[in-house]
Amino acid sequence: xxGEADEEPQAPRRGVGSSGESSPESSNETSWDVAFELxxxxxxxxxxxGEYLWWxxxxxxxxxxxxxxxxxxxxxxxxxxxxxxxxxxxxxxxxEDEAAGFVLLCRARPRSSLRIRTHQAAEMRAHRxxxxxxxxxx
Length: 138
Fold this sequence. Notes:
The protein is α+β, with helices and mostly antiparallel strands. It has helices spanning 53-59, 95-100, 121-130; strands at 13-14, 30-38, 41-48, 77-82, 85-86, 102-104, 109-110, 114-117.
């Protein structure tokens, strides 16, 4: 794992299939490299900029926690270690969450290559409580 956190972002790709070749089935949407730091190790995938990270993970057989899938319950929380995401469709996401590096994977769309530590619900709830913000299931 040494040095992986300092990886440079990869350029976006358009219409590239899983083999790296363009295919008729692939869209022209920009996609990004995503590395998830899971409790059991690191998993990598490609995610289109219009696709939510949680669903991209599910497509690749990566089981991430969830309850509401609307960006409200915090169960899918992750910590953004590298990159940028769009959280504009989350029901409950605050500037304090962004400043602390938390993301709600069910409603986060990539805007660059990413590295994310998953399974951060307890940490995000503690952060929310410390800042007087809503923390469901705390």
